[in-house]
Amino acid sequence: MRKKIVTGNWKMNHDLAQTEMFLVDLKKQVLPEEVTVMIAPAFTNLNHAFNSLREHPVTVAAQNMHQNNNGAFTGEVSAEMLKSLGVETVIIGHSERRAQFNETNEILSEKVKTAIANKMTVIFCVGEELEERKQNNHLKLIESQLTEGVFQQPETAWKNIVIAYEPVWAIGTGETATPQQAQEMHQHIRTVIANKYSKSTANDVSILYGGSVKPNNASEIFNQPDVDGGLIGGASLEVESFMKIVNAF
Ligand code: PEP
Questions:
Q1: Ligand 1 lining (C-beta closer than 6 Å)
Q2: Closest ligand 1 atom number to CA of residue 212
């Protein structure tokens, strides 16, 4: 079922004390029932956030995971480890992971496979660089990221897959895709999924937009017919701005 989702991707921000301050404030907020609200703190704060939000309708997600379940991978965290905390949602393929940590479509496909095998929900990120958009190659590029990253999955897995379209040129830059650019790409993503699987799977998948979503622009983006919410970076670090976005539908 297609859901409205707002996920805060904290990246490498908020230590334990800052996480606790955020959670205390968040728990005082009234959340709209029709929106699935998620936060993705750093690995070190997942346990605390998960336990603190046990009685609250906020999902705690991880920002990344390794494709292997265990082994000699110094510094890495596995799906099994996340699940042992109770964390069942993971962001895979964020453009910062692709660009700074050399995560290729092949590696990401392995990560998706492992997450799905562990019955986790995957938020799979796709997005083009500015140059690719300028060359009018953006639609093709996103199709290949989907084909190589998630289309190995059987259709049944799609009940646990969310797509986040994040144009790289809009992440952390203050520059947002126009609502029309977001709608065009989200519709394209749905068409590509329909061609590979079926119309009903394409209609059911939640597709989030990410890239400098702020309280003042969330509403016009979320109002597009194929936009089901957002993956929010900077504006998710403060409860006040995060809540304005959560309430922007
Ligand atoms: C992100 O990190 O996924 C993101 C969209 O960041 P920002 O909202 O800060 O552009």
A1: 9, 11, 166, 171-172, 210-213, 231-235
A2: 10
Q: Is the dihedral of CA 36, 38, 207, 217 positive or negative?
A: positive
Cβ of 155: how many Cβ atoms within 10 Å? Answer: 12
Q: Whose CA is nearest to atom 1 of ligand 1?
A: 233
Question: Could you give the CA distance from residue 112 to residue 153 in angstroms, rounded to a whole number?
Answer: 8
What whole-number distance in Å separates Cα of residue 7 and Cα of residue 242? 9
With a cut of 90, say whether residue 85 has pLDDT above it. Answer: yes
Give pLDDT, residue 175. Answer: 85
pLDDT tens profile 140-154 = 999 999 999 999 999
Among protein residues, the one with the nearest Cα to ligand 1's atom 2 is 233
Q: Tell me: pLDDT of 96 over 90.
A: yes
Continuous H helices in 68-205? 79-85, 95-100, 105-117, 130-134, 138-149, 179-196, 199-204
